[in-house]
Design brief:
By secondary structure, the protein is α+β, with helices and mostly antiparallel strands. The chain has a single domain, classed as Cytochrome p450, CATH 1.10.630.10. The protein contains 17 helices and 14 strands. A 5-stranded mixed sheet has the order 1-2-10-7-3. Helix 7 runs antiparallel to helix 9, helix 10 packs antiparallel against helix 11 and helix 13 crosses helix 14. Bound molecules: protoporphyrin IX containing FE. Protoporphyrin IX containing FE binds next to helix 13 and helix 17.
Amino acid sequence: MTQAELVFDPFSQEYFNNPFDIYERMRAEAPLYYDTGEDFYALSRHEDVAAALKDHESFSSTRGCDLAMVKADEPPQKSIIFMDPPEHRHMRSLLNKAFTPRAVQSQRDVVIELADKYLAGADPENFDVVQDFSGPFPVEVITRMAGVPEEYRQQVRHWIDTSLSREPGQMGTSEAGMQANIETAMYYYGLVQERRENPQDDMISRLIAAEIPDDDGHMRRLDDIEICGFATLLGGAGAETVTKLMGTAAVNFARFPDQWRKLLDDRSKIPAAVEELLRYEGPVQYNVRYTLKDTEVPSGKIPAGKPVFLLLASANRDSAAFTDADAFDIDRDRTEAQNLGLGYGIHSCLGAALARMESALALEKLLDFMPRYEVQWDGLRRVQMQNVAGYSHVPVKVLR
Ligand code: HEM
């Protein structure tokens, strides 16, 4: 039987349903994939993706991180994730201060309190891991740190969900998504004005007071657009990712129950389980970059001026990098290769420590709440979004 032509369409139903079969073929048959229709490249092997993530002089972030953004004429909203050095370096060193290990640890009790709150209201007979638990709590942690009042914290998540959602075949943001982006921007603009008048002990107030060097080395304050851009990014990063990771955790531990049992027997394995979840089915599937010059990765040459998909989720399943890469194994040797689930290089996840802490605590709480459970497979629903993957609905029944 001849195999169908290899097509990587990141907005197709087939891809949303299961990207991993496509990745496997790409790694084997077309590690330097080129799409003539949309004129982009895609890298799927670990050695290529890691090399490109490291080479920020060739692979630029300034045009955005998804295909529609990179192809657009207008540059994206100003935000750390869309900056190259030296601007990125200045912004990152400023923001690193907000995510010190101490700042993250100080959120521990908040995370525990929120996780407990949502589980206390949950029905073990009819529990949806995402809708009832991992959806609502991470966004509350990050928006609270940023300074968003309680009544708007869930609203931030709904705006982001709408903005990232895609119908099959839809590359750019929908009308509803645009509207959600405008509402988010207006909301944060208003909040920044309030904090300028009346500073509080929160991240937005600290960003208002902070200074970074400009192109001439003079110190300057951040403007409203920069602060709003960062607040929006944080809301997105905080709302989408841990939510997805915990949904896929419930699904994968149900598929590999021996791994769940290992955790029940020995909770010291939780941090390793978080790393394996990030490797095996991390929420961020890819980031798109733009080549500033003719460049070379181990699988070949890419000309200047092209969008390039860096398929992190594929690289993490590359058997040239990880032994038995398709096995979900919380005890695997993690020194074999760099796990790219939280990115790599200068843009690697700023919220990594927070993400790890939230995920570990959430797993701990789930082990208590549902030591034995069954997934209601018919009710499983995947999200259809640009660059993040996971489930919107993971209904489970807790077994006695
Ligand atoms: C499981 C959870 C998470 C995953 C899988 C994840 C993944 C990633 C990845 C892959 C990148 C690299 C993007 C690139 O190279 O273009 C990134 C960057 C970033 N993440 Fe996360 N993230 C998570 C949680 C968070 C949280 C909770 C926050 C916020 C507090 C956060 C804030 C950021 C920021 C601000 C950046 C941009 C850093 C920069 O450009 O220097 N992330 N994340």
